[in-house]
Amino acid sequence: MIKDAETNKLDFQQSMKEMLRQEEDAGELKISKVAVMVCLTGWLFGLTVLLGFNVRLGQILCAIAMVYAVYYALIIKIIQRGKYHPWIKYVSSTLEVSAPTLIALVDTLHQSPAYALTSSPTYLYFIAVSATTLRFRIKLSVYAGILAGLELMCLYVFLAPGIPEELVEQLPSLNVVIYSQRAIYLVLAGIMAAAISGTARRLSASFAEEMQQREYLRRMFGKYVSPVVAEHLLSQTSVLEGEMREVTILCTDIRGFTSFSSHKQPAEIVRFLNALFDRQQEIVSKYHGHVNKFLGDGMLAVFGAPFPDENHALHAAQAALEIMALQHEVWPESPEKLRLGAALNTGPVVIGNVGASEKLEYTVIGDTVNTAFRIEGLNGRLGTSVLISESTRLSLADQAVLQTFPPQMVRGKEEPVAIFEMTNLLSPEQK
């Protein structure tokens, strides 16, 4: 048991890592697609410059834009093929941070160093640093901020000697102090992006963990109750305290099972019951019901809960008749002739989680349930297959082919109970 728990924990952690990786890849894919569009726009701008007034400058701009576009197109292909590696993020961020530096250097080919240092491309450093938040890497954001600050200062050191001193006095933004402050701001922007990346990563991890836990609980809980019930209970913010609901109860039983099981091996009995119950479970689910519990060789199914169903009586009747058809199938290790009995009873029940604090069971309680079991017990005495109560007959509204029996006394009732044998359901043309 401990080993299984450890295995489940490792599987859960692995699934968490995989979900986070998928989120990171999704963020990188978004950046790459936007980058390709920006690069193509830059290529068109370079082409305009090439055809317009500066062939050399246009060629350089087109070449830079095309190299970047090819790189990001390659990244998109790598992500789509599932071969993306985390270290590529640093390559991408380095290229993005370096793009403003390259543009500023290219500007010097047809403009002054002062223009290159004061033009709008230098503000792209902040965009490049901000883009790292979509990569969910704290260290990457800090790295991008530091790199942007260093490149900005290196650019200034490289171009500043070409700026006349009187121009620096006229434009305070060209002062080394101002540029140093901008470099520090870029580093701070990287730290802020790192904080945002950390928060986004934690939120993604929390969401992924919640989804994984929900899936794990659904799978585990689904082993003990219907998947429909499991999904319903997991959607509740608190344990169900109980509610009254009108439903139709279906009980089934194998007649002659005691004598059959007395001369069979335990493994044979279990295989036979599991195979039979699997088929009954399929049929009940097919008609929007759920199996509440298996009781030895019998089954209790509910129609109309946990989700409301206006046609719960009809669906229960359809399921009962289809379950009776199982008697004609071949069942290995079954009695020579499999004999099933079923009963339907419609009425109010209390549904909710019942049990001890350490073990709860979603179940149905009430006289409707008890009466269904009592009616099912009459099948053996009357030689019938499917018996229904008066309340179920009224709910079916003349949709069933019935044979009336005299009212029968059942345990727990002071007055005889009206019962009917259902042999078929009428088609719409027969009504």
Radius of gyration using CA atoms only: 37 Å
**Series of H and E elements:** HHHHHHHHHEHHEEHEEHHEHEE
Mean pLDDT: 82
- Please estimate the helix content: 55-70%
Mass-distribution shape: rod-shaped
Low-confidence stretches: 1-5
Enumerate how many helices there are, as a single number.
Answer: 15
Strand content: 15-25%
Number of strands: 8
The profile of the biggest β sheet is: 8 strands, mixed
Structural class: alpha+beta
Could you give a quick summary of the protein structure above?
This protein is an alpha+beta fold. The protein is built from 15 helices and eight strands.
Describe this structure in words.
The structure is a single chain. The protein is rod-shaped. Residues 1-5 have low confidence and may be disordered. It has 431 residues and is α+β, with helices and mostly antiparallel strands. It is built from 15 helices and eight strands. The protein is 59% helix and 15% strand.
Write the layout of secondary structure elements.
Blueprint: H1 2-52, H2 55-80, H3 87-107, H4 113-118, H5 124-131, H6 138-159, H7 165-170, H8 176-221, H9 227-234, E1 243-254, H10 257-262, H11 266-286, E2 289-295, E3 298-303, H12 312-324, E4 340-356, E5 359-365, H13 367-376, H14 378-382, E6 386-389, H15 390-396, E7 400-404, E8 419-425
Parallel strand pairs: 4-6
Antiparallel strand pairs: 1-3, 1-4, 2-3, 4-5, 6-8, 7-8
Helix pairs in contact: 1-2, 1-8, 2-3, 3-5, 3-6, 5-6, 5-8, 6-8, 8-9, 11-12
